[in-house]
Structures are given as C-alpha cells and as structure tokens.
C-alpha cells in the first residue's frame, strides 16, 4: 500500500474511508483484544476442567463406579467394584463349630476350587489388633461373607457383629454380599434375633447337607484369576500377606 493511499476500515455499523496520513494502521483498524482474551480464557478453563476430571477420576474412581453400579448403570460391573478386594469370601463362624467348619467346609472349598481365596480368623486376623477392626477389615476386603449360622453363632457377640458388618457393607454397595449356610441346630424362626429373621425371610440361603449343597455353594462363590496353590499341608489355600490385608 502506498503511504499516501487512503485506507478503508470496517466498523460495526459502516465502512470508513480515512486518509492514511491521519493515523497509524493499528489505530485505524484496532485489534479485538477482548475476543482473544475471552477465547484464551475459555481454552484454559476447558484444560483445567479436563485435568481436574482426570485427577478426580483417578482419586475417586472406585466411589464413582460404586455409585453408578448402585444406580443401574449396566456397563459398570460388580467385578469392577470388587477389583481391589483381597479375598473372595470371608468365612464367619463360631469357634465352637470349628470341628465342622475347618476340616469340612473350608478344606472342601479349597480342594474343589483353589482359585477361591478365603479370609479366615485363624489365618488372617492380626494378633493384638482390636477384634472389631479385624472384623471390619475382613468384611471390607472380601467380595462375600459366608455366615455359618448355628445356635453357637447366635450366642456369639462377635459372630453377630460380623453379620451386622456384612449387612451394612451390602447395603452400602447395593451388592448381595452375604451367603448364609443354616445348620440344623438353629432354634425356631420366631426365636431368632430380629435382624436374622428379617434377612432369612427376604433372601435365599443354603441348608447344610441339602441336595446339591456343594455345587450350589461353589456356584455362588466368586473366584479370582487362577493362582498357584501352596504345596505345604500346613498352608493349604492361598496365603495373603498381612501387609495387603492391613494396607
């Protein structure tokens, strides 16, 4: 453009023809800095929102999945919620029933399917730790809690605490966490604690010795990926490091 040529600028309302000698180009056709600022601010806000979303998802991913699963979002699977759980099942029973539970129930489960990881009082409860904390950690770290329901179970304060902890966890996750095995020595239904009565009346349970008992139990128990079962007799089943249980 020649120095003496007129310049034409567009305003919001009309075109203006101004001699070039009157004012520099920048003053004749000013840059819309407000547009650039608002665009830059919008891009920056978007980047911050994306970064914040990534950080929030990384930190609260499990809580988000639990909420979505409990609200019927089908692409969120139960296995996603339980991915970080150490055990497949916590076996809750009275020590007075251990002659039945340990050599029969537990050993048969471990023999029939070594991929089922069991949490057991005598293996995984930390000595010197409060019993309540041991129970809460066992329930939280297990995909299911198997209750061996007997008269001895009902008379045990700690067994009832294990039932309540598992029931609360099931309500919290909106996932059926409890598997009940009824022994034959239970009192009549109307003599059971009210919470136990309500639970038995609203869910399906197994009765010890019923037809196809083992097939039914093994079918409903979750299992982890294939693992190598320890070969020593004293350490039958999977041994979970205590650092994993109490991390």
UniProtKB/TrEMBL annotation:
<protein>
    <submittedName>
        <fullName>Protein toll</fullName>
    </submittedName>
</protein>
<dbReference type="GO" id="GO:0038023">
    <property type="term" value="F:signaling receptor activity"/>
</dbReference>
<keyword id="KW-0732">Signal</keyword>
<feature type="transmembrane region" description="Helical">
    <location>
        <begin position="35"/>
        <end position="57"/>
    </location>
</feature>
<dbReference type="GO" id="GO:0007165">
    <property type="term" value="P:signal transduction"/>
</dbReference>
<keyword id="KW-0472">Membrane</keyword>
<dbReference type="InterPro" id="IPR000157">
    <property type="entry name" value="TIR_dom"/>
</dbReference>
<keyword id="KW-0812">Transmembrane</keyword>
<dbReference type="GO" id="GO:0005886">
    <property type="term" value="C:plasma membrane"/>
</dbReference>
<keyword id="KW-1133">Transmembrane helix</keyword>
<feature type="domain" description="TIR">
    <location>
        <begin position="85"/>
        <end position="221"/>
    </location>
</feature>
<dbReference type="InterPro" id="IPR035897">
    <property type="entry name" value="Toll_tir_struct_dom_sf"/>
</dbReference>
<dbReference type="Pfam" id="PF01582">
    <property type="entry name" value="TIR"/>
</dbReference>
<dbReference type="GO" id="GO:0045087">
    <property type="term" value="P:innate immune response"/>
</dbReference>
């Amino acid at each position: 453009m020649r120095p003496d040529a007129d310049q034409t600028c567009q305003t919001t309302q009309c075109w203006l023809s101004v001699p070039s000698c009157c004012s520099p180009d920048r003053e004749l056709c000013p840059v819309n800095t407000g547009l650039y600022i608002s665009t830059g601010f919008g891009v920056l806000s978007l980047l911050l929102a994306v970064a914040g979303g990534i950080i929030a998802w990384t930190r609260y991913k499990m809580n988000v999945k639990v909420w979505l699963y409990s609200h019927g979002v089908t692409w969120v699977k139960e296995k996603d919620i339980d991915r970080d759980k150490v055990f497949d099942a916590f076996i809750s029973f009275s020590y007075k029933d251990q002659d039945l539970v340990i050599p029969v129930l537990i050993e048969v489960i471990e023999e029939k399917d070594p991929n089922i990881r069991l949490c057991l009082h005598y293996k995984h409860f930390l000595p010197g730790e409060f019993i309540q904390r041991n129970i809460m950690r066992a329930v939280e770290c297990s995909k299911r809690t198997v209750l061996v329901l007997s008269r001895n179970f009902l008379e045990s304060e700690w067994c009832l605490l294990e039932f309540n902890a598992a029931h609360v966890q099931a309500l919290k996750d909106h996932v059926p966490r409890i598997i009940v095995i009824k022994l034959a020595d239970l009192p009549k239904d109307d003599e059971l604690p009210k919470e136990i009565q309500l639970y038995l009346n609203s869910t399906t349970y197994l009765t010890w010795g019923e037809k196809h008992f083992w097939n039914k139990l093994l079918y409903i128990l979750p299992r982890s990926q294939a693992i190598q079962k320890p070969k020593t007799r004293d350490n039958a089943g999977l041994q979970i490091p205590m650092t994993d249980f109490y991390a």
